[in-house]
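Q: What changes when 6-O-phosphono-beta-D-glucopyranose is included in the input?
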Amino acid sequence: MKKGFVFDLDGVITDTAKFHYIAWKDLAKNLGITIDEAFNETLKGISRMDSLDKILTYGNRENDFTLAEKEALAQTKNDEYVKLLADLSAEDLLPGVHDFLVQAKENNIPCAIASASKNAPMILEKLGVLDFFGHIVDPETLKKGKPDPEIFVKAAESINVEPKDAIGFEDAQAGIEGIKAAGMYAVGISETETLSGADLQVASMTELSVEQFMHI
Ligand code: BG6
Ligand code: MG
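A: The predicted holo structure follows.
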């Protein structure tokens, strides 16, 4: 019955969606494709290459590039994204996150990261919270991305917690679906979107306490 917490990163620990958006928008513009914020919503939780494929399909350019060219485009996007993260610091933690992680530590509840982002370790380091996490799932090791449950099952296993005793925190619909398919309790965090299938939804982590998850 040992509990464990599994967190998505982008949109749960910190708000990097705005930086992903700027970098994808610039890349798309150079390819003659215009994306807006509503389209950006559909990229949340989706891997870098899958996001690029979605953008190319959206702009009817899905057959215009070789794999090597697509890898170069994804690299260009990531270079801009990483530049935009240069000033990221503890001040960029979303409200309530630090307090919740401290409570988890005080209660000896292990925490893991289940993020599609290959930049997760660097981002957590910049935010000053890397040490709170027992494990960060390496997205390179996954066969399938969210909404497949694989990343969440791996995250729970990595901290020696059975999925049924793990609580997952997500801001994206694909993530909630993955958490539920893994057999875990799903907490949706979003002010604007209704996350269907979540066991509990809050606008911010300030509304949560570790205590409320001890006996679910
Ligand atoms: C997810 C984001 O966490 O990570 C997506 O929600 C992003 O928008 C994906 O594309 C991959 O991130 P990265 O940092 O590896 O390009
Ligand atoms: Mg997210």
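Observations recorded in class: The chain has two domains: 4-14+92-213, 17-87.
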